[in-house]
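Could you help me review a protein record that somebody else here produced? What it holds is a sequence and that sequence's fold in token form. I need someone to confirm that the token line plausibly describes how this chain folds. Take the sequence as given and treat only the tokens as open to question. This is what I was given:
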Amino acid sequence: MVGAQTNNTLSVTYNDCELKIYGCTKVVRPMLNDVRYMFPTTLNDVDTMCKMWSRFVDCVRRYMSSCSTEDQRTKFNKAVSHSMDTVHAICSSDRHQKDYLENAHCFRRVSVHSCGRYYRPLVAQVANREAEDTHICW
């Protein structure tokens, strides 16, 4: 993202930002390869995924606000807004949870079998602490 960012009166260094984003990905790393949480099929797994997702999104928002430019935030929000809206709906609405869970096994099967070959390398890239931002986001 940004080597060093001045946000209001705070100066954030590149190293500060690296530690922040690493902390964010650390929140989700244990669940990235666990289909129970990436594609939950039970209410308990949905609840666990929602709690993890909430912590992760809050962390990424803090990172973006202090370590990215306005243009980068706009692009990021545009890229992830639909996914975030979908997960938020599942996590905050009993009706959406019920609708999702009725089809969850199908979502999981299609996602793992049809999309898995694309998804696994992305997970490996995000889980790699040495990955460059340009490899993942920009």
Remarks:
- The longest helix spans residues 94-127.
